[in-house]
Design goal:
Blueprint lengths: L11 E2 L17 H12 L6 E6 L9 E5 L2 E7 L5 E5 L14 E2 L2 E3 L6 E2 L12 E3 L3 E5 L1 H4 L18 E11 L2 H8 L5 H4 L4 E8 L10 E10 L2 E13 L2 E9 L5 E11 L5 E12 L5 H6 L1 H31 L6
Helix pairs in contact: 3-6
Length: 332
Amino acid sequence: MSRAPHPRLPLRLRRPQPWAQQRPTWREARPAVIADAVKAALARPSGNWFVLGAARDIAAGRAFGRTVAGVEVVAWRDAAGRLVAGPGACPHLGAPLALGPVHCGVLRCRWHGLALDGAPFAGWEPFPAHDDGLLAWVRLDGAGGELPLPRPVLPVRPRPVGTVAAVHTATGVCEPEDVVANRLDPWHGAWFHPYSFADLTVTDSPAGGEPSEGLTVEVSFRVAGRAVVPVTARFTAPGPRTVVMHIVAGEGRGSVVETHATPLGPDDRGRPRTAVVEAIVATSRRPGFALARAAAPALRPLMRAAAARLWRDDMAYAERRWQLRSSGRFPH
C-alpha cells in the first residue's frame, strides 16, 4: 500500500489577525482542568530518576556537576564511555569533584589526588545513572522517596537515525509542578507566544474524563510573515516532572518535544530553583529532510535559540505561579 504523497510545501498562508482580535481561550483553560491534570501527573511514578542534562554535555575528559533536589552530583564518562554519577563532594575533605580533571575515565580530586573510576572507593558510592542517547539521568532514592525503578520512564521517540535533536536548559525560581502546569496549559500558546503560534485550538481535553488521557491541540507554527505550518500535537505527562508533546499529524509527524523539570535546591533567599531540560527531536518523512540531518550541527543552535525564546516567557509563567502559590494568592 503506497503512502499518500506529501504536498510540495508544508506552508500555508493565513490572513493576518491583530493579537487582540484572537478568540479568547480563558473559558476553556479552566483552572480545575489544569489542576487535575497536574495532580494526575504528580501522582505518576518516576522511580526516583532525575534528568541531569544533555548527554552530549557530559563528554569524555571532563566532569559535570549539578545539584539535584539538594544533592550535589558529579557525573563523567568512564574509560568505556559509560555514564558515571555519584556524590559531588570528595569523601576525603569535601572538595568539589566537579572541578577535578578526568583522564582515561578516572576522575581525580584537585585537592589531594583521590582517584575515582566509578566504582565504590574510600566511602564514595556511585548513584545509578542512565544515558538514553539524548539525556543523562541520575537516580536519587533518598531525594525521590519512591520505589526505585531500574530505568527512567522514557517517552516514545523517533529512531535517532532519522532525526535532528537539540537540548536546551533554563533555570528559574519555581518548583517542578509549576513547569508541569505551564506545559499542561496549551491554551496560552497563541496569546503568550504570538511570535511562534497562531490559530490554536484544543480539540479535546479531559473535561469529563481522565486527565491522563492528555490534550490534543491543533496549532499553526509561524515561519515568517503570513506563512505558517499547521500541525496536530498531543500533550501527555508520563511522570511527575515530565510533559511530552508529540506531533501526531501534519508536517514533522513523529517529532517530539520533551520537557523535564529537575528540582535543584534553594537559592540564597531560600526560594526553590528548578532546571527545565527540554529535548527537541525533529523528524520528517520528506526526502529533503536528509539535508537537514546533514546540517544538524548548524541547526541545533537555532533549535536551542527557539526553545530559549519560548522559555523566557514560559519561565515567567512558572515563576509567577510559584509566587502566587507560595503566598496563598493562587486563584482556585
